[in-house]
Write a structure and sequence with these properties.
The chain is α+β, with helices and mostly antiparallel strands. The chain has three domains: 103 residues, wza like domain (wza like fold, 2-Layer Sandwich), CATH 3.30.1950.10; 98 residues, Outer membrane lipoprotein wza domain like (Outer membrane lipoprotein wza fold like, Roll); 70 residues, Outer membrane lipoprotein wza fold like, CATH 3.10.560. It contains five helices and 15 strands. The protein has a five-stranded mixed sheet.
Length: 284
């Protein structure tokens, strides 16, 4: 009887220890697609001598004890983990429990450039959409002058073929890339058609929103759009009217779906990003 209890207790402890050892990849990593130069750590339960921290080679492979070369590129973390378990079980270890953790993300990345607080290169470690990607880059940043753009739109430059992840792409500069215009306002509101999922090699470009002030103002030019900006505010930013200005004849040229339209406005009329404010000359 005593012997039976000891066996049962031993079996219980063995099961408890086995189940407490997690072979689940780190949170959010299981579907990460591995590639060249990623660094991974491999552990095998009850075989500390097989713990390895390895770099995936430029050919997409790495070498591991007993089983030799393994192709990692193009496989998810969980797929690689299962293959290592299967190959170790093939004559080397009985019922191996393997964990694979990505310790350095190198192969999958995206870029955020333009009017954001922290432009740069970001690792693509999991599924992420444009609203979160911009938030991780600190959100919309400062533009020309002292104002801030509202960042109501962005362009995602997406490679048509194999992704080039060495540098960001400028919208319209690469004929081998697709330029996808996105409404950030709709993305932030939860519109999945606008809140695009980011893919490896994508460049997110957030332009600074501007208005143009021309004609009889002291400093014609382009100026950062401000929320709720009026014609008068824009003219004031351009250092005001000249002595020859006809303020009451001011009009806006605005791009619409049917083309450019000319709108007669008063000085308290709200402007929109991209508007051109024209102050005519007075003839009297």
């Amino acid at each position: 009887m005593q012997k039976s209890l000891e066996i049962l207790l031993s079996l219980f402890l063995s099961i408890l220890i086995s189940t407490s050892y997690s072979t689940t990849p780190a949170l959010g990593q299981e579907n990460y697609v591995l590639g060249a130069e990623d660094e991974i750590e491999i552990k095998v339960w009850d075989h500390e001598d097989l713990t390895r921290k390895l770099r995936v080679g430029l050919d997409g492979c790495f070498s591991y004890p007993f089983i030799g070369q393994i192709m990692a590129q193009g496989r998810t973390v969980i797929e690689l983990q299962k293959e290592i378990e299967q190959r170790l079980a093939d004559g080397y270890i009985v019922d191996p429990h393997v964990s694979v953790t990505v310790t350095e993300f190198k192969s999958q990345k995206y870029f955020v450039i333009g009017n954001v607080q922290k432009p740069g290169t970001y690792p693509l470690t999991r599924s992420i959409r444009i609203a979160e990607a911009i938030a991780l880059a600190g959100g919309v940043g400062s533009g020309w002058g002292s104002g801030k753009g509202t960042g109501s739109s962005a362009v995602v430059v997406r490679p048509r073929g194999p992704a080039r992840t060495d540098q960001p792409q400028i919208p319209g500069k690469n004929t081998d890339a697709e330029n996808i215009k996105v409404s950030l306002a709709a993305a932030y509101a939860g519109d999945a058609s606008q809140n695009l999922e980011i893919k490896n090699g994508d460049t997110i470009f957030v332009p600074t929103e501007v208005v143009y002030v021309t004609g009889q103002v002291k400093r014609p030019g382009r100026y950062v759009y401000e929320p709720n900006m009026t014609v008068l505010m824009a003219v004031t930013t351009a250092e005001g009217f000249t002595d020859r200005a006809a303020p009451k004849k001011t009009y806006i040229i605005r791009d619409q779906s049917a083309g450019k339209v000319q709108l007669k406005v008063d000085l308290h009329h709200n402007v929109k990003p991209g508007d051109t404010i024209v102050v005519p000359e007075s003839w009297f």
